[in-house]
Every structure is written in structure tokens, then in C-alpha cells.
Write a structure and sequence with these properties.
By secondary structure, this protein is of the alpha+beta class. The protein is built from four helices and five strands, in the order H-E-E-E-H-H-H-E-E.
């Protein structure tokens, strides 16, 4: 390759590798290069196509997990309007266990320009059955434009 990274899947792969190297939970990923033919004038010439293959993380998205956690607390409310034994404290403990590593890595999200890690839908973080938060998608990291084009940083704003 003559540029770094040159495809959105490469950018996402390298972002995942950086998070993993820093000790954050990310699924195992690899970039698979295959050859395909497109339906146009160069149809006889194969074109490389990069695919990102990722391990599936069993769990719920962050927003779905929070809704389920709130639902468990609501269902533990007895007829007097008070919470059952320790349900609220348990919810706060579990949510704190998930939120701490996310807060600790916030600066990394900013440095990698990973604006979609906690989006409005919060679907790029999955909470597994052990209450661990996994980053599962990095589409905006490493200067990727929303159109999928690699946009290098502006040298005028570079500190180097």
C-alpha cells in the first residue's frame, strides 16, 4: 500500500489495534483482501476488495443494557414504592463498573477522533455478560470522513 491507511476498513482495523494495545476490550479483527470484478469497462481486470472480519461479542448495546438495567430496578419496586433489597445499589455498582473504563478511555477517543464510540444510539459499545464494555466499531477513528474517504489531518493544525 502506498498510503496509510487507504481504505475505511484499514483505518478501523488500525484503530482497533491501538485500543487493544492500550488495554481496552475490542474484538479480534483481521483484514481480508479478496479480488472482485465490477460491472464496468474494467470488468475483465480484477480489483482488490478489503473486508474487515471481526469476532462477534455476545451482549447488548450500551443503550439496550442501560434500559434493561433500569427495567430490573423498576420491576423490583414493591407495592409501597420502595426498591427491593439493594436493587438500586446493585444498579449503581454495575453501571459504575461499566462507566469507569469508558471514562478512562475518553481521552483516547478524542485523540483518535473516534466520535462514534458513544453516539446517540450507543451501538458501538457492547456490554457482555460479565458487565464489561467492548468497543466493537471504529468507523470515525483515524481521520475517516463519514463518506468513507480517508482524510489526513490538516498540516496547518499539526503540532509537529
Amino acid at each position: 500500500r502506498d498510503s496509510y491507511p487507504c481504505e475505511p476498513v484499514e483505518s478501523e482495523f488500525f484503530a482497533a489495534q491501538l485500543y487493544a494495545a492500550l488495554g481496552f476490550l475490542v474484538p479480534r479483527m483481521c483484514v481480508y483482501e479478496c479480488s472482485t470484478r465490477f460491472n464496468h469497462e474494467d470488468a475483465n481486470r480484477p480489483h482488490p476488495l478489503l473486508l474487515l472480519v471481526s469476532e462477534y461479542v455476545e451482549g447488548k448495546t450500551l443503550s439496550a443494557f442501560r434500559e434493561a438495567l433500569d427495567g430490573q430496578v423498576r420491576s423490583s419496586v414493591d407495592g409501597t414504592g420502595t426498591h427491593g433489597t439493594g436493587a438500586l445499589q446493585w444498579q449503581q455498582h454495575v453501571w459504575g463498573q461499566i462507566r469507569r473504563p469508558l471514562r478512562a478511555s475518553y481521552i483516547i477517543d478524542c485523540l483518535l477522533d473516534n466520535t462514534e464510540v458513544v453516539s446517540a444510539s450507543q451501538r458501538n459499545i457492547v456490554v457482555d455478560h460479565a458487565f464489561r464494555a467492548w468497543r466493537v466499531s471504529f468507523p470515525s477513528a483515524l481521520w475517516m470522513h463519514s463518506s468513507g474517504r480517508c482524510v489526513p489531518p490538516d498540516p496547518k493544525h499539526s503540532a509537529v
